[in-house]
Each structure stands twice: as structure tokens, then as C-alpha cells.
Amino acid sequence: MNNTRHINIVTRLRPPITNEVNDDGVRVTREGDRHFISVNNPRDLTQVFKYPFSSCYDQDSTQQEIFDNEVEPMTEDVYAGLTVTIFAYGVTSSGKTHTMQGTKSDPGIIPRAVESLFQRKRKQANVTLAISYMEIYKDEVYDLLIDRENAPKLPVRENGAGQVFVANLSSQVVDRVEEFHQIYSEATLRRSVASTNLNRASSRSHAILTITVTISDPTLGKALSGKLNLVDLAGSENNKVKSSRFASRLLYSRLKQLTGNDPSRMAESSAINKSLSVLGQVVHALNQGASRIPYRNSKLTRILQDALGGSSVGLLICNIAPAPKYRQDTLNTLNFATRTRNIENKPVINEKDLKPAPKPPMSRRLPQAPARRPSEVPSGLTSRIARPSLTHGPSRSSLPSSTIHSEPVTVNVNIPPQNPPPAPGLTEEEIDARIAKAVETEVARRLAEHEKQKAIETESRVSLEEGPSNSSQKSPVVEDPSSHIGHMSVDEDLRQRLAELEQKFETGNSELRMVSDLSPASRKRTGRAYVALARAQSEKNNLALALELYRKAEAYVPDNVKLKERIIEIEWAVKNGKPFKPSPKKPRKKKTKKTAAAEKSRATGSESVLQDSRDENNAPPVFGSSLLVGSTTASFKRQAEGSEIWETPKRRYKKIRASIEQEDDDE
Ligand SMILES: Nc1ncnc2c1ncn2[C@@H]1O[C@H](COP(=O)(O)OP(=O)(O)OP(=O)(O)O)[C@@H](O)[C@H]1O
After folding, report:
1. Average pLDDT over residues 160-182
2. What is the CATH T-level fold of the domain 5-235+262-352, as seen in this structure?
3. Which ranges are annotated Basic residues under compositional bias (predicted)?
């Protein structure tokens, strides 16, 4: 069964707005059942480009028309358990926000779609609607349902099933349309909007509103979970002058005149342009059937991954501004639309198991969820906001369809971190002390575990040496498996291993929960603390424990390349029973004004964790990474000065890896 669906492409031409000349060069015509948009070449106006589309909406078309023809049928898909993504794309001021939000007198797609979803809800039992709303501003994700002062930057993560999600994004159940409007209009006020010369209320961020429709069937113990993602992209702007060092003052002032962008607007603008350019690259790569699609190059494409060549149903509304100054942008938009048309998605029905997942044996019960910190909750919403959900393994679907996607069972409980995040109002020292204490306790526990493990190993070795007669009471490992006692001991051994595994599983989970609850600065501090402890252990040649601690640090700073390299090194040493030799310590240089300033900036959190902790001991890194920030790379350059060949960190890393592999081969 072929269940692929192309992204549906719709173009919309907005009427001219204040002081704008209607451009006859952009026209919509109809030939049979096809529509064409014709655009004059901006450089040679005698040349006309013609783009065919199955549906185009000209200046006279209404919001109602677009909704009825294009969006209404998709709300059916949502109720069927599919994920539907609708994007508004186009140059700044082309009418994206107008199309998505509309006005009070002429509502856009969002209010109309919500109304339609509620209409169906009224006719059907056991339906729940919940909303979440986020914006991607300068490549950072913020929750729009939370006051901006309290809204942290949210991390984008991937679950075991490869689904990308925004961690800690709140979601709110809504029972009535009016309730939705109140929440939505409040949240929209939090969106980053600014006035530019091209648009009085220009969106400076990409906004994604998600409405989740859950239809439960208590008799079957199943629920369908459809989603409607409504995406109002920020508009691209011509800011090229900013990136050109050689741009003349005249050109700069011309562009400033056109966009009205001051430096901070320009920074926003270049972030918008960058993410839109990655979006273009993703579409291009999908068209080419490339083996690597650059989803990870921006948060926007990561979050929209499912809608671009994934399991979502898609509708792209390309908005077009008619004025002559936008002609090149119109061509860009139409080219983007043409390329996106070829993208195929494979929609899947999202089904959830309502039955609680079987509890893992011996697992501890979750303690009662504490109330959310006031900073995380918009006033009056406390009881309705669901914390990030815990997933317990995939559920099995009984529905006979190849398009059914059995989601992991989602348990909407508040999961308190095992070590609760520091309460607001604590001083930096207090936070550090808490982290240090938590890390120390963990290390002590692990040391004790290692000691125990060692004792068991020694015992079994001794009993092996003493011979089988004595071993029955001492070691389960050397038992004669045919004897009754032997069976019991093997059972005991298995049980013990199982308990250890369960404990590991629990600790791992609590670790992840703790990581996601900490602020980026606290995460970095905790990572640094683990690295310092790990180094201390590796210096004592306690490599297994050092490795474990480095891995723990990695949970807090997953992007630290040097840390990853260190883990590989120690893993290799442990595997091959070789001692681990960190690179020799380098005498600390006398502090110059420049290095003091660099250290100060590092202290404010701009440097890598491993580098920070190494600096404390003056130990230069064994490996370097080209991904490191400027000052680190500069320190590598300094180290390499005097050596015959300029050895980049990457080259150095490759060299060491090659020698490790060579040693492996030799063995
Ligand atoms: N179809 C339309 N009919 C009437 N007015 C429209 C239409 N489309 C857009 N407008 C008006 O044009 C102006 C710019 O539109 P809008 O803010 O929606 O653009 P945008 O593409 O979202 O811009 P940006 O990317 O800068 O946020 C607004 O004043 C809006 O009311």
C-alpha cells in the first residue's frame, strides 16, 4: 500500500498596502484546472516566468475561501490521528501573519481551524484538545505560554524512536473556543514583533502553534492522537549588506532605508535568513534524494523535520507581495514552492495505549509531584500545564493498518527530578554547593559499588584457586551447573545482576530528568564537577570509574567534543588493559591582560567544560577540536608554533585515532 503524500502547495497574492504600487508584473491566471503565476524578470522586464500551481489565490480571494478549500479537509486528518503541518512562507510583509492569524473581523487559518476542531469535539465523546505554542527567536526556542521573563531557552531533543521534540515545552488543555482565544491572544503578545520599514508589525521569530487532539476509546484502551501544527514563519529580508565587509556606506544606508533595520534588527534578520536558508537547503537535499539532509543545521528545520519528508501531512502557503521591489523575492518564493512540491511524506496514524505500562519490577514509586515553580507557570494556569511526559517503551498496536504508528505510552505525570532543581533565590555558591554535594554522594556510591564488585571478583578468583570443593558456598561463578546448589547460586547471581541493571536504569532516568531540569549554566557546572572528579580518578589509574564519571559529565554537556574524545581514549585504555596517559602538563603562563580577559569571559560561560577544568590544572588537552571557540583554537595555535607542521586539532585527533586503530590491528 502506497501511503505517501506530497506537500500541498498553495500560493496567495496579497493586495497592495499603503504606498505600494500594484505590480502588474505578478499576475495569477487560470488555464483549465491549472493556475499560473507570471512574474517579470526583475532585471529584464520583457522576460516573464510562469509557474503552474493547482491552486492560487489572488488579491480578491478571502480567508474563508482558503480555509474552506485547503484547511478544512485537513482537520479531518487530525481527527484520524495524523499530524498535519501548515506553514505560511514568504518575504517580509507578504501576508503570512495575516493568513495565519487574520484579524478580529476577518479571522485567519488559526482561529478558523480551532473553531472547526471544536465543532467536531462537540459532536464526539472522549475528545481532548490541548495547545502548545513556541517561537524560535534567533535560533533559540521559547515557550510562548509562559511569561518571557521566566521562559528559559528550551532544548530540542530526540526520543528513542527518532522523534524530535522540544523538551519542557508546556501544553495546556482547552475546553472551549473562548478559552483558546484568551490563551492564544495573551501568548501572541509575547511573540517577538518589531516595526521595520517593510512591515509595521514584523514577526521577528518563527511561531509554531500545536493543537493536539486526543480521541480516547476506553473500551479498546486506545487513543488516537492527531496534531495540527500551524507555523507562521518569519519573513526573509534582504540584509546582505550586513555580511559584506566591503559594502559601501551608501549601500548600507540604502538598505537601512529599505528595511529600517538597526544593528539589533539586523541580527534578528540574519538569524531569520539563516534558518530560512537551511530550510531551503533541506528542501533541496530532499529533492536531490541526498543521503544526508541538513535538518540539524537549524532549530527550525529540526523541529519541522517530521513535516519535511517525515510522517506528517503538509500544506505550504506561499505568500506573495505584489510590489516591484519584491519581484526577486517573489521568484525565490515560487522556486521554493516548486521544489517543495516534490517532497513526499509518509503520514502515520499516531496511536497510544491507554493502559498503564507495566511497571518494571522493583522500581521505586515516583514521589508525589511538587507544585511547579512559580517562575515556570503563567498565572492561573498551574493546574493545567503538563510537564514533559515520560515515555515507557513502545506500545503494540492492534489496529490492522500499515500506516499506524504506535507511539510510546505517554504518562502525563509530573516527574520531579531526584535532586530537585535549585530554587529561585539561591546564590551561586549555594547552587555550587548543592551540585558538589550531589556529585560527591554519587561518586561515593559508585566507589562503594566498585569496591563491592572488586571484592566479589577477588572472592571468586580465590575460590577458583582453592578448587571446586570449597567453592559451593563462596562463588556462584565456578559452581557445577548440574548441582542443585549451583542452580541456586546462578539464580542469585542473575538476580543480583538484574537488580544492578534496574538500579542503573533508574539512575539513568533520574539523571536525564535532572539534566533537563537544570539551567544551561548549572548543567555546565555539574558537567565540570564530574570532569574534575573523573580526572582525579584517571590520575589514580582508576580508569573504569573515571570512564563512568566522564560519561556522566557527557549527559550534562553532550556537545563537548573534547569530552567525547577523552571518553574514547579511556574506553580504549580500559578495553585493552593499557594505562591511560594524559598529555603532559604545561606550565601556567604568566597572566597577561589578554589572558585575564579571556579567563574572565570563560568564567561567564563561553568556554568548553573540559577546557575550563583543564585550565585549573594547567593540563593541555590531549585532543583538540576545530569546533572549539576562538580563544581555545588560539591556544592550540600557540602550542603548535614551533612545531614543524601546523597541526590542526582535527588533524591531531585523526592522528591519535589512527595510531590507536593501528595498535588494535597489531594486537
Ligand atoms: N490578504 C490580505 N488582505 C489585506 N491585508 C493584508 C493581506 N495580507 C497582508 N495584509 C496586510 O499587510 C501587512 C503585512 O502583512 P503581515 O504582517 O501578515 O506580513 P508578514 O508576511 O507576516 O510579515 P513579517 O514576515 O514581516 O512578519 C499587514 O498590515 C496586513 O494586514
Report:
1. 92
2. Kinesin (3.40.850)
3. 583-594
